[in-house]
Amino acid sequence: MALDISVSTFEYLCGLLSTGSGHVVLLGVYRPGSQALSELFFNELSAVFERLSAYNCPVVACGDFIVHVDRADDVNAVRLEQLLQSFGCTKHVTEPTHNAGHTLDLVITRNDTEISGLRVGAMVSDHALIQFRLRVKKSCAKILVVTV
């Protein structure tokens, strides 16, 4: 699935998963730790989230953001949290996901998307495997009543 957005501060792969119950947009994100966080990163991430906000189905963004969200005093963590709130999103990982003890890998959904059973598992390389269940509900038809 193409979002037609070119970014230079991170890599992403986006796909549409179809089930008998509905659809889910999955976004995988990788931000190289060798690049410093910048204004451009937040602008590009915002552009991707803006494009994803047009989908009327659950959206799950997960991956290696390399933002120290475990540090409440980190300006980049605060900025990411503000960006997510502006799109009505929640980050679900609160445990360390890196062998240095930081939370760098995230699972992000819109506030109306239910996930359960999230757990940070064993280390795969220097990052942990994150597992969760996503409930996909069949969309109800919207009824529009027009009186003329």
List keywords for this structure.
148 residues, five-stranded mixed sheet, two-stranded antiparallel sheet, 2 helices, 7 strands, alpha+beta
Describe the structure concisely for a colleague.
With 148 residues, the chain is α+β, with helices and mostly antiparallel strands. The chain has helices at residues 39-52, 75-86, and strands spanning 11-19, 22-30, 59-64, 89-91, 105-110, 115-124, 127-134. The chain has one domain: Endonuclease/exonuclease/phosphatase (Deoxyribonuclease I, Chain A), CATH 3.60.10.
Draw up the topology in text:
Elements: E1 11-19, E2 22-30, H1 39-52, E3 59-64, H2 75-86, E4 89-91, E5 105-110, E6 115-124, E7 127-134
Parallel strand pairs: 2-3
Antiparallel strand pairs: 1-2, 3-5, 4-5, 6-7
Write up what this structure looks like.
With 148 residues, this protein is α+β, with helices and mostly antiparallel strands. It has one domain: Endonuclease/exonuclease/phosphatase (Deoxyribonuclease I, Chain A, 4-Layer Sandwich), CATH 3.60.10.10. Helices cover 18% and strands 34% of the residues. The chain contains 2 helices and 7 strands. The strands form 2 sheets. The protein has a 5-stranded mixed beta sheet with strand order 1-2-3-5-4, with helices on one face. Strand 2, helix 1 and strand 3 form a beta-alpha-beta unit. The chain is globular and about 60 Å long. It starts with 10 loop residues before the first strand and ends in a 14-residue tail after the last strand. The model has no long low-confidence stretch (mean pLDDT 91).
Strand content: 25-35%
Which sequence of strands runs across the widest sheet? Answer: 1-2-3-5-4
Text of the CATH class:
Alpha Beta
Please trace the helix and strand order, writing H or E for each element: EEHEHEEEE
Number of domains: 1
Q: Helical element count? A: 2
The low-confidence parts are none
Give me the CATH architecture, please: 4-Layer Sandwich
Largest sheet: 5 strands, mixed
CATH topology: Deoxyribonuclease I, Chain A
Distance between the termini: 40 Å
Categorize the overall geometry.
Answer: globular
